[in-house]
Amino acid sequence: MCCGPLDRNGGLVTRHATSQVLPRWVLEDTSRSGRLLRVLPGVYVDAALADGRGSAPPLARVTPVLARRAAVAYTGGRGALSHLTALEVWKLRRQMPGEPVHLDVPTRAGLRSGPHLVVHHRRSFAPEPPHVLVRDGEPVTRLDRTLVDAWPLLHPADRPAAIIKAVNDRLTTPRRIAAALATAPKLADRAALRVLLDRLDAGCRSPLEIWGHDRVFVGPGMPAFRRQVRARLGGRVVYLDLFAEAELVDIELDGATTHGDLREREIDLRRDALLAARGVLVVRFSHRRLLHEPDEVRRETLAILANRRRTPRPDAGLG
């Protein structure tokens, strides 16, 4: 008798929903028979959708999508997916096996954490805009808040990636994330996040560019580079990594995988030729050299800039 509600709701039912259409004993009998698996208080899934790991928490035995749906059903409309779980919904990082589902709920919601579920009780939180958005049908904390909340839960080496991707994909800005950070004065490793946001606000768009900003293209003689400069070339728009405007030098930082694709290599060569036709010298430094020869790269850059300063340069007209 529970098959109807299960089928209509993708293999998930709640005690509250079934009580509206079926006697209470039907749900209890179906659960005792093993046809339903209780994954959270008052939340059940079709047992056929769970894997055979009997020792794992029930919520961990279903797919991530079904686990998120179950967690949302558990809130009864009082919460939203948050932290690392929200990062997955925002498509910025996939949750790793074994990581729990995270929820944000109001302080007095009366909901508790459990196996494979972490419930975060928040003051001044409401399950509605601007605190919560619906993305792909799932209620989720707003992106800036999500990025800040997830920061201390990630391994230090993995922390920048989601934030850099969110900024590069124009889902948010460094200043919006900084505004969310201002509301979390006790966040673990807050200073490191502040530094990252400063670098992104300065125009850095990759870990390699941040490395260059901090360790290579700094010190006496270095100009105030413009970063990610928008230029129109041959009917298309390109972005220059580091542009010394007075010297008309474009410094490109080639990542570890750059030019592995011959087609991408050809595109870059064509771009460099178009810039050269406008008087812009393109200098490319590899990932390996930037990381392992920063002092030599710095000396070469200073020499190139000094040489270019000896001759007045026309306006390249890159706008």
Estimated share of beta-strand residues? 15-25%
Average residue-wise pLDDT = 91
List the quaternary state of the chains: single chain
Rough shape? elongated
Poorly predicted ranges (pLDDT <50, ≥5 residues)?
none
Our count of helices gives 13
The strands making up the biggest β-sheet line up spatially as 9-10-11-12
How helical, in percent, are the residues?
A: 25-40%
Number of strands: 12
Structural class: alpha+beta
The largest pleated sheet is described as: 4 strands, mixed
Number of domains: 3
Rg over alpha carbons: 26 Å
Distance between the termini: 68 Å
- The arrangement of helices and strands along the chain is HEHHEEHEHEEEEHHHHHEEEHEHH
Structure description:
The protein is an alpha+beta fold and 319 residues long. Helices cover 39% and strands 20% of the residues. The protein has 13 helices and 12 strands. It has helices at residues 3-8, 15-19, 24-32, 64-75, 83-89, 143-150, 159-168, 174-181, 190-201, 207-215, 262-277, 287-292, 294-309, and strands at 12-14, 36-40, 43-46, 80-81, 101-106, 117-122, 132-135, 138-141, 226-233, 236-244, 249-254, 281-286. The strands form 4 sheets. A 4-stranded mixed β-sheet has the order 9-10-11-12, sandwiched between helices. The chain has a 3-stranded antiparallel β-sheet with strand order 1-3-2, with helices on both faces. Strands 4-5-6 form a 3-stranded mixed β-sheet. The longest helix is centred in the last third of the chain and has 16 residues, at 262-277. The mean pLDDT is 91.
